[in-house]
Amino acid sequence: MKPMERRKVSALSSYKDKLEKVRTFGLESKLSETEISSVMEQCMQSLIVKNCSKPKGKSSFAQIYACAIKTILFLKKVLFYVSSILVVILIMYVVLQHKPTQYFIQSKLQDFIYPGMKVLRKISLPIISLFPSLTGFYDESCLVVNPFFRVPDMPCPCEDVRVILNLTGEDIKREQYHSGIPFMIKVKRAEISLQELKALYGNHSSVFDRDASYLTISSPTNQNLKSTPAYLFESEWYSKEQSWNSTHVLWRCNRMEPTRLLRSCFGVPEKEPIYAAGVTIEKVVLMDGPRAPPYHLPTTEGTTVFIQQSMGSRMIVLNPANECKEKCSSVSVELPPKHILWFSWWYWRASSLPSPAASSVSVSYVGSYL
């Protein structure tokens, strides 16, 4: 037997003899086997805890070495990321500034655009199947509005505007009524009440639930609460008159079938300004209680905007665009039922305020032309 093994056996034998002596002493002290085992187990546990709590000694050199290794690895990662960013910036600079390189890349990439988009579409199919609500972004003309958008040196033909003209009976296609002049006209339209909107939804709920299934409700207790037309028109909340007093509802439709149904209900403007081009698909229905707080009208797809007041009345304030604030003044008008207000988004930003004389719910229909 080797000396090391002999010492281990000797130590174990000595340890065993000592345990037997402890057990014998316990029996002589009239302790039971269970009590003796419990005492010995507690002693062993205390020894284990004591040994584990002892700090494992590490030399200062080992600690410094480990810290240095970690620092070097971290610096390597930082250097890699910084180098990658610099390389990407350099490539972008070369592509944007060096015309021959730019033309070369453009000529070579033309043949890969369609196949690349096709591959991207196939890659996105599993994601769309997991999150079908993402398909709603497909119909959005703008996902994020740029708040810093400015047109440098933009002419402002609104500088002489002091009031919003009522051009009912006038030829609005005359050149003197240019895009800088907001105006309103009276139209031959039946008033569209909340009950008629409810009936329209009830008759075509499958279309609206599929293609225009969300609306926004703002009230003193809930701001910009995302809800559904079913909740609005079929819940008890809808039938309570006091619920509408300070409530604002925005229902936006940007798909063909629901906007066609809205058009059949609200109609189409019989005349549009001379500067209006093709009509856009997007339509917005605004429902406001008599004391609904002020709000900014949503940004439309087209720049020639119309607001058709179908029921009730609202105070519409047109503020000059940022480019024209120094030259143009704000104007306002109380828009009564069966009237359409026309203005150009290039020069005006619209806000809706409660009318002092309003006593019923207001229903407004908003659309735009290019």
TrEMBL record:
It is found in: Cytoplasm; Golgi apparatus membrane. Keywords: Cytoplasm, Golgi apparatus, Membrane, Signal-anchor, Transmembrane, Transmembrane helix. Its main location: cytoplasm. It comes from the Eukaryota. InterPro entries: BRAP. One of its GO terms (cellular component) is Golgi membrane. The chain crosses the membrane at residues 78-96. It is a single-pass type II membrane protein. Coiled coil: none annotated. This is Regulatory protein E2.
